[in-house]
Amino acid sequence: MQLSFAEIDGDVRRLNLAGNLDIAGTLAVETKVLAHCGGEQPLVLIDLAETLFVSSLGIRLLLQAIKTVAARGGRLFLLNPSAPVASVLDIAGLDSHIFRGGEAGAAAALRQKQSTNPSMPEKSP
Amino acid sequence: MSANYRLGVVNNFDALPAAMEALSRWLEERQVSPPAAYLATLALEELVTNCIKYGYDDQAEHVITVEVGFTSGWMVMVVEDDGHAFNPLQQAEPDTSLPIEDRPIGGLGIHMLRKMSDRMEYVRENGKNRVTLHKAINP
Predict the structure, then answer these.
(1) ipTM of the assembly?
(2) How far apart are alpha carbons B128 and A61 in whole angstroms?
């Protein structure tokens, strides 16, 4: 599992997870993923386009990330999951955190929600 | 079931990645449909992990056996261990509709297997837990 990080316009953190979020993959990246969820009102995108597999341990990490960001007054969207991964997210009840659109739209939605409504994100369009 | 694949995994987390890779490769070589392959790999991780975590009180080495086979349009996977009796079908379903802040972390593995398989069975026999998963495969 490979984690890469980029900032979008200086305020949105974009994490790309490439590989399997299985037991080995999750343990390899969990500390770094959660570290990127810190700070004040973090805006975070986790891009799952290259994530091939998510087990319950991977779901646990994503849930922890969402909770961590929310506890700090921020927002987090999951982006670009493949159909099998989206199905697992749906079963785990995380489908409301999937943004169905491109990166720019997701970043804009994070900023908009941040400024208008501090509650958890609604299901994206 | 005609057992096409049989794997023994010792009760040590270090053994799991290699076992998952071997099973994934075997499924890929046989061009098993992605949903069935996903379920089999997931079941290996979830059931073996549960067994390693909660199945044993001693420090001895135990072997958890995994069998995967195909019959009449179905993939059938059997995971057997000699750990404490544990019926995953009796585990309470997590409430995934709760707001995120109220959601417990964890407890989703068995839920995922139940949702993703077409049928899941459990038997306790001869001091062993046996979980069987059935998944329809595309012709």
Answers:
(1) 0.90
(2) 31
Give the full edge-to-edge strand order of the sheet including B63-71.
Answer: B3-10, B63-71, B74-81, B128-136, B119-125
Structural domains of chain B in order of their starting residue, each with its CATH number: 3-136 (3.30.565.10)
The partner residue sitting opposite B96, judged by closest CB among A24, A84, A92, is A92
Q: How distant, in Å, are the alpha carbons of A95, B86, B97, B115 from that of A124?
A: 9, 39, 16, 24
Q: Which tokens go with B15?
A: 């053994």
The CA distance from B1 to A80, in Å, is 38
Residue B72 distance to chain A (closest CA, Å): 24
Q: Which domains does chain A have, with CATH numbers?
A: 2-101 (3.30.750.24)
pTM for the model stands at 0.90
User: Is residue B102 within 8 angstroms of chain A, CB to CB?
Assistant: no
Q: Which residue, chain included where needed, has tokens 């953190």?
A: A13
Check CB contact of B88 with chain A, cutoff 8 Å.
no
Place of tokens 């046989």: B30
How confident is residue B104, by pLDDT bands cut at 50, 70 and 90?
confident
Cross-chain Cβ contact A91/B116 below 8 Å: yes
Q: Quick one: DSSP state of residue A75?
A: E
Q: What are phi and psi of B111, to 5 degrees?
A: -55, -45
